[in-house]
């Protein structure tokens, strides 16, 4: 698709691809959401992409609605780009990159999930690495943030491994209940010092150009 550049962007690493979340790819991934394999323990925060809905069909419907809603709210200051994670030609999860006051501060955040069948294989770290390459190298971000509940050891470990610095704590809810979250911060200079040369970006320039005009 060339008429909407946000659906042409992709990121390739030696382990996986982040492909823009077209409806066709979402349809291939829907069975993972329907089967409840997108949920995690400990649970993530109450993001619009939350998977707490117990009814499988309604869970899929709400998941798709959140993505479609996010597509329609893109502007230069605040945006969310959705990617399907593909490993060996199989869609197994999602990685989002979120612009936060982007024209003012150049900051991004990330949100992701992986099917329960593919966890603890280093995929989460590789997904984040690909997202950071797109954010800093492709979209000229100046800083990336991440948040994870204090008992989400996997996400916190990924942030440490990728060079994020601790940036305090805050309260958030999951399943409607309050819990404490760690905040993490990664500057462009820190990322650049460990920039990988084996991650390729495709279709970024038209996306960046249109995003700046919206």
UniProtKB/TrEMBL annotation:
Gene3D superfamilies: 3.40.630.30
Ranges that cross the membrane: none
InterPro entries, A to Z: Acyl_CoA_acyltransferase (IPR016181), GNAT_dom (IPR000182)
Transferase keyword on record: yes
GO MF entries: acyltransferase activity, transferring groups other than amino-acyl groups
UniProt keyword list: Transferase
Domain named N-acetyltransferase: residues: 16-189
Protein name: RimJ/RimL family protein N-acetyltransferase
């Amino acid at each position: 698709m060339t008429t909407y550049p946000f659906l042409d962007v992709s990121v390739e690493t030696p382990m996986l691809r982040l492909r823009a979340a077209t409806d066709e790819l979402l349809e291939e991934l829907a069975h993972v959401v329907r089967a409840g394999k997108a949920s995690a323990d400990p649970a993530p925060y109450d993001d619009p992409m939350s998977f707490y809905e117990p009814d499988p069909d309604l869970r899929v419907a709400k998941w798709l609605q959140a993505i479609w809603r996010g597509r329609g709210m893109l502007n230069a200051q605040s945006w969310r780009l959705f990617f399907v994670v593909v490993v060996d030609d199989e869609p197994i999860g999602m990685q989002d990159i979120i612009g936060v006051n982007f024209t003012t501060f150049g900051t991004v955040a990330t949100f992701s999930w992986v099917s329960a069948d593919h966890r603890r294989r280093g995929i989460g770290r590789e997904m984040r690495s690909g997202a950071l390459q797109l954010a800093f190298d492709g979209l000229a971000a100046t800083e990336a943030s991440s948040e994870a509940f204090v008992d989400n050891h996997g996400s916190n470990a990924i942030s440490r491994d990728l060079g994020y610095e601790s940036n305090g704590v805050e309260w958030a809810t999951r399943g409607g209940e309050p819990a404490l979250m760690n905040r993490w911060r990664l500057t462009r200079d820190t990322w650049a010092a460990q920039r990988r040369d084996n991650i390729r970006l495709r279709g970024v320039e038209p996306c960046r150009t249109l995003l700046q005009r919206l």
